[in-house]
Amino acid sequence: MKIFIEGSALFKERTGVVQYTKRLVEATARTYPEHSYTVFGFKFFTRPLPQNPFPKKLGIRFKIVRLVPGRGYNLLFKWGVAPPIDLLLRSCPDIVFFPNFVRWPVISRKTKTLLAVHDLSFVHFGQFTHPKNLPYMLKHVSRSINHASHILTISESSKRQIIEHYKVNPEKISIVTPAIDHAEFFPRTQNEISMIRKKYKLPTKYILYASTLEPRKNVEGILQAYAALDEKLKKTNGLVLTGGKGWKDESILKTIAELKNIGENITQTGYAPDEDLPAIYSGASLFVYPSFYEGFGIPLLEAMACGVPVICSDNSSLPEVVGDAAILIKAESAQAITKAISKVLSDSKLAKSLRQKGFAQAKKFTWEKSATKLLKVFQKLA
């Protein structure tokens, strides 16, 4: 099969969509090298020419659309007059995979299109979506779903929501979950943990949150919960927030500053590269992820694979991801988060049990398994 992958998401900072696209395409090309894979992207005049983000040994081709600049194509798409992408690429692939919510025009009837819709946060939690992106998503995701040959999503929760909201035939939707690379995410040595602790000036013991700092992730709930902890627990456990700047984070940053001013032990690492994350996870006493809504929740797998007890919300896809390997709480209750944190930090038997269950749960998710599921979808379409 001749498979093309729209690659604009690959050139952004580490996000769930970026990780999903890159890791899934790598695993599929590595596991099934008999097929042809081409990632394509646009040139932007204000940015350096993008480079192939994949290792050469995988044989994934990389193609730049040169006839129309990226910004110009995006405008034409918004106006409804964008030229078919297969014409611009001067190619007729068997399948074009659009991994980032929106499907661009394709003229060839022989070419099937696969669209990934990861979640419906822009529908159910529009207040947490950037106001510039919200109208775009509401308009174009619906149209893209209607025109796509098949829909890919990442959890049972997301599939149910897509069926209910867009009235899609369940047979038109396949689930291919994200995963993690277990050769990267595993408990690190004390020496590695000490080095990373020194690099980021982390406390000896800490409660960890790792993701973008944005309202949907309920970072303020974490801050409120930490501030309400018993002083003895706070004395021995700091709070570490690892992640890049998110949209609408002004209130979060204000709360952090206020808590720091009254002496709370809070550390912000900012964006941490992939190679540092396993040691940051491994050094944590526990991981908290009380998000209001998720399509999946890759950080939960990363934390469990590194041997960290997990606390997360009981909503959307999160119970699917953690199974019985985490303490589930109501995201809306900072008091519930505080209670769960206190429980794990004060009960070593519980923490040990969560670690053991977490290892087993994380092992259920591998990129090779996901690649096999994706190939079956490709074969079904071709």
UniProtKB/TrEMBL annotation:
Outline the extent of the Glycosyltransferase subfamily 4-like N-terminal domain: 16-183
Keywords associated with the record: Transferase
User: Which InterPro entries does this entry report, sorted A to Z?
Assistant: Glyco_trans_1, Glyco_trans_4-like_N
Q: Which Pfam families does the annotation name? A: Glyco_transf_4 (PF13439), Glycos_transf_1 (PF00534)
Q: Name one GO molecular function term.
A: glycosyltransferase activity
The cross-references to CDD domains, in alphabetical order and at most eight, read:
GT4_MtfB-like
Query: Where does the record place the Glycosyl transferase family domain?
Result: 198-358
Q: Report the domain of life of the source organism.
A: Bacteria
> Which residues are listed as membrane-spanning?
none
Report if keyword Acetylation is assigned.
Answer: no
For the keyword Transferase, the answer is yes
Coiled coil (residue ranges)? none
Q: What protein am I looking at?
A: Glycosyl transferase family 1 domain-containing protein
Natural source organism:
Candidatus Woykebacteria bacterium RIFCSPHIGHO2_12_FULL_45_10
User: Lineage in the entry?
Assistant: Bacteria, Candidatus Woykeibacteriota
